[in-house]
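Entry 12.
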Amino acid sequence: MHSLTRIALATATAAGIAILSLPSYAQAQQKFPSKPIRLLVAYPPGGSVDAVARMLAEKMSESWGTAVVVDNRAGAGGMLAASALAKAVPDGHTLLYDGGNFLINAVLQPSLPYDPLKDFAGVTRIAYGTNTMVASPALGVKSVKDLIALAKAQPGKIIFGSAGGVGSGPYLNGARFNLSADIKVISVAYKGASESMIEVMAGRSHYSIMSLLASLPYIKDGKLLALAVFIPERSSVLPDVPAMGEILPEFKRSTAAGHGLLAPGGTPRPILNYISKEVARILALPAVRERLHATGFVPAPNTPEEQDKVLREHIVMLSKLVKEAGLKAK
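Predicted 3D structure (tokens):
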């Protein structure tokens, strides 16, 4: 057979195989999900994280015609849920809603039952939860710069109160702020947001970092003064309050991790992309966006590759913070 003929035949054969394989590939993609999906949540029922997870599960179930079951695995600071995900079959039918404790455990817990980098794959970010720095109006400061100046003038006398200890997001944000601003303050951990808020309003602690949802009514009443928000851009709810990145470059350099979805490591990339696009579609729905904004969340979906990068960058950043601030889990 003439060489050109053989080449043409080989090319045609290869093309035919490729064409024939396309339907089978599409069918394979259409098989997901092929059974109910389990959405692990490392928090008890009834909280804001659980509410967002259930809203997401409901919309996924409606779209896919398959049950998406929320499985609350509270305990061990989120390690129970993460451990369950690490052991799951990497086929996309088991996911974890990460409300932020996954990253904190990765840098504060010395002996995890899983590898936070190798055993998981990022699917997408869901939203930022807006944290707000608030101060007692009696303190006499009007801005973050005023607070920094006061703390430097009175080293070791200004009290930072947080809802939760070293393993909480507000405490870590406070430690990061104190390091970036180069101020020395007294850090006091309270049992919860309510106690922390009462202490600031009473003037027994001077400033705190708490969720916008919890603090907003008191900000509007003038009982708390909002100094900054810990999200990449200003909040539409408090447009006159600056983002911390506008004041301290350290907070501008890193993108907020926010809440996100994780899958077991080794989950096929087409499945990760498929879930990520579905979440982005859901988060673009006006009713969903409205519900999220009403609870202090800012929708911010991204791709699996982008979410992997965000997680790795934050593990590095938080590891550095823990080392420099001398923090240890309690």
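Annotation: Confidence is low (pLDDT under 50) at residues 1-28. The two ends are 78 Å apart (CA to CA).
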